[in-house]
Design goal:
The chain is of the alpha+beta class. It contains 7 helices and 7 strands. The protein has helices at residues 17-26, 41-55, 79-101, 107-121, 151-165, 178-186, 201-204, and strands at residues 8-11, 61-65, 68-76, 136-142, 170-175, 190-197, 208-216. The chain is globular and about 45 Å long.
């Protein structure tokens, strides 16, 4: 039986930024640290969180236990705007930073980048665009020792209430974890699309599933 924690769910504040970045990096590989597939903590954590903490912090929530941030939900009301800012500002800056630092030349990183490019060339990274019916998105990251204790449910509940107040008509998300997929299904999300990805095959020796879930909120 999972241990229950009394968590305080609240809106993200600027003082939470470092904790959010650390948790994002520590859980990026299907709940495990990103170091499994990529060297460069600053680059990875910034790529995962910069838009949410710097451009749309009002759509993010954190979970505290004993005044310590143990998990967060990063959200965006409009995926199209997120991608515009990320592609034109955030990722370009991070690419040059990574290039100047030399981390892109590390063997682990070259291997991962090559496998992502190969998947892209093969058309395996293509997925349907659900942003018309489900414009908002979300990501949840929770420290391992605090999972299974209703913290994720609390974060989702707060975010969905926020989206409804903002008049957002739908939200969607993607996950590569079977456990996470089951969790989102229990939260009332509908499976919209599934496929497989191969860029972690050199680590897991298998392809991983991709699940996209959505929920309509209004309209």
């Amino acid at each position: 039986m999972s241990q229950e924690f009394k968590a305080n769910i609240r809106k993200f504040e600027s003082r939470d930024k470092d904790a959010v970045r650390q948790i994002a990096y520590a859980t990026a590989f299907m709940g495990e640290p990103a170091a499994v597939f990529f060297d460069g903590a600053d680059i990875v954590s910034a790529a995962l969180t910069a838009y949410f903490t710097d451009y749309e912090p009002q759509s993010c929530f954190v979970a505290e236990v004993d005044a310590q941030v143990v998990g967060f939900l990063s959200g965006a009301r409009n995926k199209v705007e997120l991608e515009r800012v990320s592609n034109n500002k955030i990722f370009l800056d991070l690419f040059w930073r990574a290039l100047k630092s030399g981390i892109l030349l590390r063997s682990k990183n070259i291997n991962f980048i090559w496998r992502c490019l190969w998947d892209m060339l093969k058309g395996r990274l293509v997925a349907p665009d659900f942003s018309q019916e489900y414009p908002a998105i979300l990501h949840i990251n929770i420290r391992k020792e605090f999972r299974g204790s209703n913290i994720g449910s609390g974060l989702i509940s707060s975010y969905l209430s926020y989206l409804k107040d903002e008049g957002v008509k739908g939200v969607h998300l993607a996950t590569m974890s079977d456990k996470a997929a089951n969790f989102f299904s229990r939260q009332g999300f509908k499976l919209l699309y599934t496929s497989r990805r191969s860029y972690f095959r050199h680590i897991l020796h298998r392809d991983v599933p991709l699940y996209i879930y959505g929920m309509k909120l209004a309209g």
